[in-house]
Amino acid sequence: MKVLLVDDSRLARTELRHLLQAYPDVEIVGEARHAAEAREALQQLQPDLLLLDIHMPGETGFELLASLDQAPHVVFTTAYDEYALRAFEVNALDYLLKPVQESRLTVALEKARRKLVASPPETTRPAAAEEPAATPLTAQDQVFVKDGERCWFVRLADIKLFEINGSYTQIYFEQHRPLIPRTLQHLETRLDPKVFFRANRQQIINLKWIAGIEPWFSNTLKIQLRDGPEVEISRQQSVRFRELMSL
């Protein structure tokens, strides 16, 4: 497991290095003192896990994550306990208070191991402009989603629906429905077509979340998503859907 340490305190980084020596499967691939160094290191080193401080010169750890289009798994290390709720809202694996206790670090690393087995992260990339679209993502990639003051890291595989809502796109995952400033056209170029299907002009569905299919009016289809809404597939896309899902 490749780990990147991000902390403005040299003493804190040294202490983490010392603690991590006890875990043979952990490789510290680099260190960063602030967000700018971390972004460069993430792109070059492609770590599996980020041990991330919150308070750093310039940008905070949260602001660093908000600037990334993709990221490895994250464990926060901080001297402040008031950010724990916010940390878990961005799907951090754990939140370790300084001085970091070996027992708590062991728990955090085990969470990371389980996540890596279930969904190994892909290369982290800086956020891309709307056009041109960046390299397509896989269903196991994590993406950063921000809506107002709330933010999350979410696997694309866990998103069941993308739906136009005014000039924004609404994302359906778990009980959340955040809005992002992206068009469906842009998202379609980023998403894996084997997993995500353009149902109509308004919606893209995750094929893995389909619970039921039934014929609908004018040779169209109606899809029931697991724990989600019904989606009507347009006539043209119904033809494509049948071809895609047939042997």
UniProtKB/TrEMBL annotation:
Residues 145-247 form the HTH LytTR-type domain. The keyword Phosphoprotein applies. Residues 2-113 form the Response regulatory domain. InterPro entries: CheY-like_superfamily, LytR-like, LytTR_DNA-bd_dom, Sig_transdc_resp-reg_receiver. Keywords: Phosphoprotein. Pfam families: LytTR (PF04397), Response_reg (PF00072). One of its GO terms (molecular function) is DNA binding. It comes from the Bacteria. The modification 4-aspartylphosphate is found at D53. PANTHER family: STAGE 0 SPORULATION PROTEIN A HOMOLOG (PTHR37299:SF1), TRANSCRIPTIONAL REGULATOR-RELATED (PTHR37299). This is Two component transcriptional regulator, LytTR family. It comes from Hymenobacter gelipurpurascens. The lineage of its organism: Bacteria, Pseudomonadati, Bacteroidota, Cytophagia, Cytophagales.
